[in-house]
Design brief:
InterPro entries: DHFR-like_dom_sf, RibDG_C, Riboflavin_Biosynth_HTPR. This protein is α/β, with parallel strands linked by helices and about 190 residues long. It has helices at about 30-40, 50-60, 65, 70-80, 105-115, 125-135; strands at about 5-10, 45-50, 85, 100, 120-125, 140-145, 165-175, 180-185. The protein has an eight-stranded mixed β-sheet, with helices on both faces. Helix 1 (about 30-40) runs parallel beside helix 4 (about 70-80). The radius of gyration is 16 Å and the shape is globular.
C-alpha cells in the first residue's frame, strides 16, 4: 500500500503561517532543498487541500520563469509532471488538477492509497492533514521547524480530536538552522 507523507514547515511556536497568513519566513537552502527532493524520489502523486492548492497553483506552473532559485528549478518540472489531487467540497478543478475529492474523504483517500504506485505527498496546510490524521491515513509526518516565532497563525495541527502519539524516526539539522524530524504513528 502507498504511504501518505505529510511534509510541512512550522515555526518554533507551532504555526504554519503567520497571523496574517504570511508564508514569507521559510528559507529553502541547499540542505532543505535536498531533503525535499529526497522525498520526491518515491512520490508519484501530490495531495492538497484547497487553500494550499490555490497557493501552489498560483506559483508553480511558471515558477522557474520568475525565480532562479535552484530548488525552484528542480521542483517546478516535477510539480508540473506529477498528478495532483485536491480535496475540497467547493473546488471544481482546473487545468493543473488531476482529480478532486469532494466527499467521503476517508473512503476516497483510502482508495487512493490502495491504488498501485509510489507514495503520496501531502504538502503544507493543516485542515486536510488534521482530517486525514483523524482517520489514521497519514503514515509519516516530516516537519521542518524553522528558527522563527510567528506569535500566531494557523497551528501545525488544526483542532486535534485527541492525543496523537508519534515516534521520532529520524531528525537532522539542515542549512545550519532548520530541524527536520520524521515521525510515524506510535504502535
Amino acid at each position: 500500500m502507498r504511504k501518505i507523507i505529510y511534509w510541512v514547515h512550522s515555526s518554533v511556536d507551532g504555526f504554519i503561517d503567520g497571523p496574517g497568513g504570511e508564508f514569507d519566513w521559510p528559507r529553502m537552502g541547499q540542505g532543505l532543498s535536498a531533503y525535499s527532493e529526497g522525498l520526491n524520489v518515491h512520490v508519484d502523486t501530490l495531495l492538497y487541500g484547497r487553500p494550499v492548492w490555490q497557493m501552489m497553483a498560483g506559483f508553480w506552473p511558471k515558477a522557474d520563469e520568475v525565480s532562479d532559485h535552484p530548488h525552484t528549478a528542480k521542483f517546478a518540472p516535477f510539480w508540473r509532471a506529477t498528478p495532483k489531487v485536491v480535496c475540497s467540497r467547493t473546488f471544481e478543478g482546473d487545468d493543473w488538477t488531476s482529480r478532486v475529492i469532494r466527499d467521503d474523504l476517508p473512503g476516497q483517500v483510502g482508495a487512493l492509497k490502495a491504488e498501485p504506485g509510489g507514495d503520496i505527498l501531502l504538502t503544507g496546510g493543516s485542515g486536510l492533514a488534521a482530517a486525514l490524521t483523524a482517520h489514521g491515513l497519514i503514515d509519516e509526518y516530516h516537519i521542518a521547524v524553522h528558527p522563527v516565532v510567528l506569535g500566531g497563525g494557523r497551528p501545525l495541527f488544526a483542532e486535534p480530536k485527541g492525543r496523537l502519539n508519534l515516534v521520532a524516526d529520524g531528525s537532522q539539522v539542515v542549512d545550519e538552522q532548520v530541524v527536520v524530524t520524521r515521525y510515524r504513528l506510535a504502535g
